[in-house]
Amino acid sequence: MKVNGKHVVLSFVCLVLGFIISYSYQLTQEEDNKGTDKQWERDYSIRETLIKTEERTLELQQELQKKQEEVSLIEEELAEGEQLLFNLVEDVEKLRMYTGKVKVQGRGVEVTLSDASYVPSQENVNNYIVHESHVFNVMNELFISGAAAVAINGQRITKNSYIICNGPVITIDGNQFPAPFVISAIGDPEVLIPALNILGGVKDQLVADNITVKMIEKETIILEPVIQ
Question: pTM of the predicted model, to two decimals?
Fold first, then answer.
């Protein structure tokens, strides 16, 4: 069997071509493996970063919630402090009002006590005029019924006030006033007037003592402070 040069060359070419194809395939496989390893490393790194980010986000959320709770507690304490301060200021204003230190204004009632217009002959005139006990009864009933401030003929009544009867006049804190006696009280008229009108109460007693009683509701009563 003869082997000519062409066959040898062709065989050699085929051998070289086969070697090249085999080498290229192996090289490609190695590159693919390397690429797969790098991709896996990138994916792993991204997952690790994502996990760490989520953990940090959770920590920050928990820290934020804690701070918000602290802020809420501080706001509650401030609100309680403001309410306490408001209550103290309100109490001080009430005390100043009760002691007659400040001018007050509001709705209320006006009760006028007048001597009897007619005194029968042979009767004691003292039984037909207003005495300090009558004024006291009206004033006390008004305070008991919730009056915030009371004045008699414009004279503000305080815890230190005194009332003395001197015949046809009464003396309030050293100032004399003749009848009629106008007792002004700041408070709820729907409470004060019924309290005076209760059956057998203050008004009935005054009428029984021959005192003329007039009561009116006032939308605005202004009581000046006590002059020291």
Answer: 0.59
